[in-house]
């Protein structure tokens, strides 16, 4: 089994910052990519940021220049530094990992989600 545990969400004022963390543990052979998604009330889940094993980065247009994704391969952990937060960033943020649990079994795994609320 693979577990993803997120932390770092909370309430922050507009213009503030938060840092999300997601640690993967369990039966992990190799991680291909990790990323962050979010889902606001009444909306579909959307990609926020993604980092591949090659360190190629991808960001949603709405967060470019404000959010930074990074990864600690030794710790199987991915981070999302969120600066200049806006009310429209309010959502539940989910961590995702695309990984091999053994030499041939590839799967997508999700964390339980962490709430980020941007409000004055």
Present the secondary structure layout.
Elements: E1 2-7, E2 10-12, E3 18-26, E4 30-39, E5 46-52, E6 57-59, E7 67-72, E8 77-82, E9 91-100, E10 106-110, E11 114-118
Parallel strand pairs: 2-11
Antiparallel strand pairs: 1-3, 3-8, 4-5, 4-9, 5-6, 7-8, 9-10, 9-11
Oligomeric description of these chains: single chain
- Strand residues, percent: over 45%
- The unreliable regions are none
- Which structural class should the secondary elements be placed in? mainly beta
Average pLDDT: 95
> What's the SSE pattern?
EEEEEEEEEEE
First and last CA, distance? 40 Å
State Rg.
14 Å
State the shape.
elongated
Q: The biggest beta sheet, please?
A: 7 strands, mixed
Helical residue percent band: under 10%
User: How many distinct helices?
Assistant: 0
Number of strands: 11
Quick structural summary:
By secondary structure, the protein is mainly beta. The chain has no helices and 11 strands. Strands 2, 4, 5, 6, 9, 10 and 11 form a 7-stranded mixed β-sheet that branches. A 4-stranded antiparallel β-sheet has the order 1-3-8-7, with no helix packed on it.
Describe the protein in words.
This protein is mainly beta. It is 0% helix and 58% strand. Strands 2, 4, 5, 6, 9, 10 and 11 form a seven-stranded mixed sheet that branches. Strands 1-3-8-7 form a four-stranded antiparallel sheet, with no helix packed on it. Strand 7 (67-72) and strand 8 form a beta hairpin. The relative contact order is 0.33.
């Amino acid at each position: 089994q693979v577990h993803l545990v997120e932390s770092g969400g909370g309430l922050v004022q507009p213009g503030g910052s938060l840092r999300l963390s997601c640690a993967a543990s369990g039966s992990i052979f190799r991680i291909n990519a990790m990323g962050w998604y979010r889902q606001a009330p009444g909306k579909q889940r959307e990609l926020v940021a993604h980092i591949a094993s090659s360190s190629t980065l991808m960001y949603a247009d709405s967060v470019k220049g404000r959010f930074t994704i990074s990864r600690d391969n030794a710790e199987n952990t991915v981070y999302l530094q969120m600066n200049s937060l806006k009310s429209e960033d309010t959502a539940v943020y989910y961590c995702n990992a695309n990984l091999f649990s053994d030499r041939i079994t590839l799967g997508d795994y999700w964390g339980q989600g962490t709430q980020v609320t941007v409000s004055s």
